[in-house]
From TrEMBL:
SUPFAM superfamilies: Glyceraldehyde-3-phosphate dehydrogenase-like, C-terminal domain, NAD(P)-binding Rossmann-fold domains. This is Trans-1,2-dihydrobenzene-1,2-diol dehydrogenase. Its EC number is 1.1.1.179, 1.3.1.20. It comes from Pipistrellus kuhlii (Kuhl's pipistrelle). Residues 3-121 form the Gfo/Idh/MocA-like oxidoreductase N-terminal domain. One of its GO terms (molecular function) is D-xylose 1-dehydrogenase (NADP+) activity. One of its GO terms (biological process) is D-xylose catabolic process. Residues 134-206 form the GFO/IDH/MocA-like oxidoreductase domain. It comes from the Eukaryota. The keyword Transcription does not apply. The keyword Oxidoreductase applies. It catalyses: (1R,2R)-1,2-dihydrobenzene-1,2-diol + NADP(+) = catechol + NADPH + H(+); D-xylose + NADP(+) = D-xylono-1,5-lactone + NADPH + H(+). Homodimer.
Length: 242
């Protein structure tokens, strides 16, 4: 029987995810609903992707009994609210990275999923690349010996994206791009917690600083690492608690 998906948010990343999901057999996966804060956008999204139901609020989708698993593709600061809404409605959740803006948010979502006995996963899509699957197999077999050093680099110019340079929207390269490097290192070393984290950053015209720099337990660890790096270079978000 096909797994029935609901799409939370009608933005670009949700559109990309839905388009790819629809390449899989309908006997395995079906998108049955989409929700946006603007009903007209949800209806447009539904027409584009041939989805039977469109909602003008996330609450309506969470209450829909036809939806088994929710894909959350909202912007970073809205992840926590959308994930908790869906979990509390009994839905399994696949949430875009980063799972949360702060480590406290990630721990709260993980705790809710565990208490409900529901599936929750951070959508780190690179974990499923064939090359990384081969690397994990090699590591598991000990083919690389006693691993001591791993290095990851990934850079994209995001300064032209308004959201990416706005602290109020959890902007910056760390959560958007740096997470790929951090999760790779975490994967290579089996989710071990770092003994020490050092960070360097550069200040842009907006005042935003950039860093050069998935089981739930690892998402929690990853959130801790990213938060420590962020605070080490002096970046705070509205979601940070005193």
């Amino acid at each position: 029987m096909a797994l029935r998906w609901g799409i939370v948010s009608a933005g670009l990343i949700s559109s990309d995810f839905t388009a790819v999901l629809r390449t899989l057999p309908r006997s395995e996966h079906q998108v049955v609903a989409v929700a946006a804060r603007d009903l007209s956008r949800a209806k447009e999204f539904a027409r584009k992707h041939d989805i039977p139901k469109a909602f003008g609020s996330y609450e309506e989708l969470a209450k829909d009994p036809d939806v088994e698993v929710a894909y959350v593709g909202t912007q970073h600061p809205q992840h926590k609210a959308a994930v908790l809404l869906c979990l509390r409605a009994g839905k399994a959740v696949l949430c875009e990275k980063p799972l949360g803006v702060t480590a406290a948010e990630v721990r709260e979502m993980a705790a809710e999923a565990r208490s409900q006995g529901l599936f929750l996963m951070e959508a780190i899509w690179t974990r499923f690349f064939p090359a990384l699957e081969a690397l994990r197999a090699a590591l598991a077999q000990g083919a690389l010996g006693d691993l001591r050093v791993a290095r990851a680099e990934f850079g994209v110019n995001l300064t032209h994206v308004p959201r990416a340079t706005d602290w109020a929207q959890a902007g910056g390269g760390l959560l958007d791009i740096g997470i790929y490097c951090a999760q790779f290192i975490s994967m290579v070393f089996g989710g071990q917690k770092p003994e020490k984290i050092s960070a360097m950053g550069r200040r842009y015209e907006t005042g935003l600083k950039e860093s050069p720099v998935m089981p739930l337990a690892e998402s929690e660890l990853l959130a801790d690492i990213l938060e420590e790096v962020r605070k080490a270079i002096g970046v705070t978000f509205p979601q940070d608690k005193p």
